[in-house]
Amino acid sequence: MRKKLSAIKGMNDLLPNSTNIWSEIENRVKNIFARYGYEEIRTPIVESTDLFKRGIGEITDIVEKEMYSFVDNLNGDSLTLRPENTAAVARAVVEHNLTYDGPKKLWYYGPMFRHERPQRGRYRQFNQFGLEAFGYDGPEIEAEQLFLINRLWGFLGFNNEYMPSLELNCLGSTEERILYKKALTEYFLKFSKDLDDDSKRRLDKNPLRILDSKNLDMKDLIKDSPKITNFLGKESIEHNERLTKYLRDLNINFKFNTCLVRGLDYYNLTVFEWKHEILGAQSTICGGGRYDNLVKVIGGKSLSAFGFAIGMERLIDLIKSFNTISLKKNLDLYITHIGKSALAKALIFAEQVRDTELKIKVDMSQSSIKTQMKRASLSGASFVAILGDSELDLGCMTLRPLSKNFENFKAHQKSIPLESVADFLLNSLKNMEKEK
Ligand code: HAM
Questions:
Q1: Cβ distance 364 to 413 under 8 Å?
Q2: Nearest to 271 by CA among 187, 434, 145
Q3: Following DSSP, what letter does each residue of 122-145 receive, concatenated?
């Protein structure tokens, strides 16, 4: 026998028992994005490796060790499966001059690829919803995006103890960060023998990254390191104060975390993350910030920008943990049959009734009625129909509700003339919806 093939480690199939919740959440997120005037953009999955090296920064985990990069043998180009989409969206904005008539608000959704060690909440192929706003300088766009995320949490049923928590930091301007990096380097140099290998390597080129270390042995050293807040100038402080005032005005809770530097190098001023501890080690569901220098770094003119991305797998994990969403049924009617002529009748009947948009599945097997009924109850349908010789003679169908509200399904079954089945189902489904 040939070896059985399986999916690539860290790249998961999404099976039918999950795709319905995924679609429901995708629709809700898109609905919220549209309410704030964001438009969809779709960029390719593969981009030039250079885009991410320049955009995300050479001394980051993503570029150093997580990119799926390869050479296109047909022309020698170095290509990469996108590990994130901000750099690619910025590339598209420049390439198509999307801000020619003013600021632009864009959203995207799709798979990203990072060669990380797979574990709960961390995959090699994962999906992100993201927002990117180009051409907005002030804290207003930042506040509006945080309002949007806060509204989204409500829309997904995350209230009270289910609510993710918001952490903010201000990374200042390039000039302020140069001074801060110098102070950090001097501080960590004093403790160089206590640094882990990653931090030693980063000390030279990107000391901010040390603050991002997940190594618990480094925790105390990081806690006592110089704080960015002592290096911020008047403008940065004012920007941050205006943003936090907007958040207070709408009673959005947040914690200021001076160690929050994010894993990508393009940020300045505001950065933020929403987390939920129930997710364990990979607790960040959403992260983003301001990146006013990225567009220039990838070859465009100076253009301010602010955005974030939400990890769908972590979001779904959270929704499942709290069971905050009840899904509509995927199927309204499952038709079983006894005998060939009943199957033929079922097939034609179902096709006619689908004009009403009812969702119907016909069991086309030759299985016993018992097995068909078992399948019907596993199908998630609201009703099962039985079509046998006596029903054919009478021109009717036996309909039985499968909803959990009915403990004794059989006692609620009814014989309905074929021409009235559609109306009967539509009315019953409407009433069931009301009772919810
Ligand atoms: P990020 O923090 O790298 O930011 O990713 C954003 C979110 O994607 C994370 O908070 C997490 O929920 C999810 N995520 C990241 N890596 C994985 C993984 N390996 N498996 C599962 N989920 C993951 C960015 O990607 C930036 N582009 C966000 C941004 C947009 N900043 C400005 N605009």
A1: no
A2: 145
A3: B-SEEEEEEEEEES--SHHHHHHH
Q: What are phi and psi of 43, to 5 degrees?
A: -115, 165
Q: Compute the radius of gyration of the chain from its Cα atoms.
A: 28
> Quick one: pLDDT at residue 355?
94
Cα three-residue angle 197-199-201, rounded to 5 degrees: 70
For the chain, the straight-line distance linking the first and the last C-alpha, in angstroms and rounded, comes to: 51
- The protein residue with its alpha carbon nearest to ligand 1, atom 8, reads 311
Q: Ligand 1: which of 284, 286, 290, 292 to mutate, most ligand atoms within 8 Å of CB? A: 284
Model pLDDT, residue 434: 82
Is the model's pTM score more than 0.90?
Answer: yes
Whether 313 contacts 305, CB under 8 Å: no
Q: How confident is the model at residue 404 (pLDDT cuts 50, 70, 90)?
A: low
Write out the two tokens for 236: 């940065």
Query: Which of 314, 316, 317, 318 is the pocket-test mutation for ligand 1 (most atoms within 8 Å of CB)?
Result: 314
In the reported structure, the alpha carbon of residue 282 is separated from the centroid of ligand 1 by a whole-number distance in angstroms of 11
Q: In this predicted model, what pLDDT tens digit does every residue of 240-282 receive, in sequence order?
A: 999 999 999 999 999 999 999 998 999 999 999 999 999 999 9
Closest to 298 measured CA to CA, from 57, 8, 10, 65: 57
Cβ partners under 8 Å of residue 269, min gap 6: 170, 171, 172, 173, 236, 239, 240, 289, 290, 292
Across residues 358-377, what is the average pLDDT? Answer: 96
* Residues whose beta carbon lies within 6 Å of some atom of ligand 1: 84, 86, 114, 116, 121-123, 126, 128, 130, 132, 263-264, 284-289, 291, 307-309, 311, 313-314
State the average pLDDT over residues 366-371.
Answer: 96
CA 27 / ligand 1 centre spacing (Å): 20
Q: What is the pLDDT of residues 134-152, one digit of tens each?
A: 999 999 999 999 999 999 9
